[in-house]
Amino acid sequence: MSALLPVAVLSATLVALFGIVLPLLLLGPVMASRTRPQPQQLLFAVVLLIPTIVIGSVFLAWWAVSWLESTDAPAPALIGISLVVAATVGLLTPLRVPVGSGPFWIKPLLGFAAGVLVPVAVMESIALGLHEAAAAAVGVLVLGVLLVVSRVIAKPLAARRQAKRVRASVERFQGQLVDVTDEAWRLVDARGDGNRILLRYDGEEDGKRLGASLLLQRDMEWVPVAKENESAVFELSKSLNGHPTEAVLAQKQLGTPATLTLRIPGTTVLSVREDVADSLSWVEFIGKLELTDAVGLLGRQLPEGR
User: Fold this and answer.
1) Which one, of 75, 86, 72, lies nearest residue 10 by Cα?
2) What is d(CA 83, CA 139) in angstroms, rounded to the nearest whole number?
3) What is the model's pTM?
4) Whole-number CA gyration radius for the chain
């Protein structure tokens, strides 16, 4: 009996269990909730996921060795363990794409490919007369090549997917759009619908990496109101329309990121939130903002070829 059949079946089983079924069971209810997942919920899911994968890997390795012993595969223990390890590493290793995330099928495909190619490489190496240790080294080399190739493939796919989502979100929003005109700042993400959109920017000031989130909402009833110990109303000498305007600076407690909220012309309210506390000079940052439309925002932030 050929060893290729159990290798393929076991790799597909491992990918289905660890890459699809377990994440859906443990993380599905958390991610499906309309509210933002709490760190405690994600931590609890991860704490359950790790031991489940460890126990499942031991069982699958035992199954692989038992099945391979009934075939013509040399060193069934080495091949079975390398299959489980390679497929698991392929599923769990981050792709480190620059923005967004790669297509969902990249990780299962990588896990399956690693679970098949690595043990096959080990088998062929032993068949060529290499020692088991040398054959294992060849398997590690094949796994490394697969990881590098997957990252090379995932980066442009992730960038294209991110650009498509940003374009769709910007074009869907029906309020007044705002863009950061400073060349040191660039749009990295956009999510929203017709009534609200969240624009995330990364920038650099004095050699430091900064971040800011711009939330635009269609709201006719908003008025600047201060809350005791949480926010204060003050007047900006120059708003986006060139005239003074009242704004609300909110900070729940010292040392946490602050949010500046003001109304811009029309029906839209702008909230700017810094990623790191006390990292933005609000007057200077507002001066970098410019009223624009979808064509202008996309033309500047998503030029052709990006």
Assistant:
1) 86
2) 10
3) 0.69
4) 26
* Residue in 20, 21, 14 with CA at minimum distance from that of residue 113: 14
* CA torsion, ordered 136, 142, 144, 148, to nearest 10 deg: 180
3-state SS record for 89-114: HHHHCCCCCCCCCCCCCHHHHHHHHH
Nearest in space to 181 (alpha carbons), one of 240, 254, 109? 240
Q: 285: closest CA among 171, 188, 224, 203?
A: 203
Which tokens in the block code for residue 106? 């990249």
Contact 192, 172 (CB under 8 A): yes
CA quadruple 249, 252, 255, 260: dihedral, nearest 10: -20
CB atoms within 10 A of CB 102: 22
CA angle 119-122-128, nearest 5°? 145
Q: Return the structure tokens found at 111.
A: 């896990």
**What pLDDT does residue 116 have?**
92
Can you give the pLDDT at residue 143? 92
3 state SS for 186-255: EEEEEEECCCEEEEEEEEEECCEEEEEEEEEEECCCCCCCCCCCCEEEEEECCCCCCCCEEEEEECCCCC
SS3 290: strand
Which H or E run contains 270? strand 268-274
Among candidate residues 132, 115, 114, the one with its CA nearest the CA of residue 123? 132
The pLDDT tens digits of the residues spanning 20-74 come to 888 777 666 655 555 566 666 667 767 777 888 888 889 999 998 888 888 878 8
CB 290 within 8 A of CB 178: yes
pLDDT of res. 305: 44
